[in-house]
Specification:
The structure is a single chain. The chain has 130 residues and is α+β, with helices and mostly antiparallel strands. Helix content is 35%, strand content 33%. The protein has a 7-stranded antiparallel β-sheet with strand order 2-1-5-6-7-4-3. The longest helix has 22 residues. The protein starts with a helix and ends with a strand.
């Protein structure tokens, strides 16, 4: 019998597999591009977050289980598409940050979704170049 957190993870990832290809095409959608840790290919994931000065902040709903977090651990150089423009940067995983408090400062709709489906939240900060 699967644990509730595991069931939640499986349902959410199945839903995201269907929704993410559509979301990636929306011009206003923020995208995080990582390098696939096995394939070496670019992997684009729709995310919610906020730019604060020279950094972009987001919260991973499944922490280190998220594929993009696993890719960041292998190669922290990423790109973020904000308002239709790509920015390069370096991602940092912040396990000591309070992700629930961090969500309060991020866009409301995304934060509600992350809290609703998330398990093992993890804050990620991308220090943007230039």
């Amino acid at each position: 019998m699967p644990r509730p957190a595991e069931t939640k993870y499986r349902v959410a990832t199945a839903f995201q597999r269907r929704l993410n290809p559509i979301m990636r095409r929306l011009p206003a959608q923020i995208l995080l591009e990582t390098t696939g840790r096995t394939s070496g290919l670019p992997r684009r994931t729709p995310v919610g977050g906020r730019r604060v000065d020279g950094s972009f902040w987001l919260v991973s709903e499944f922490g280190e289980r998220s594929q993009y977090v696993r890719n960041i651990k292998a190669d922290p150089r990423v790109r973020v598409r904000l308002r239709g423009r790509w920015h390069t940067g370096t991602a940092h995983l912040l396990p000591d940050d309070d992700p629930v408090a961090r969500l309060r400062g991020l866009p409301r709709m995304n934060s509600v979704a992350v809290r609703a489906i998330g398990a093992g939240l993890l804050t990620v900060r991308v220090d943007l170049d230039g």
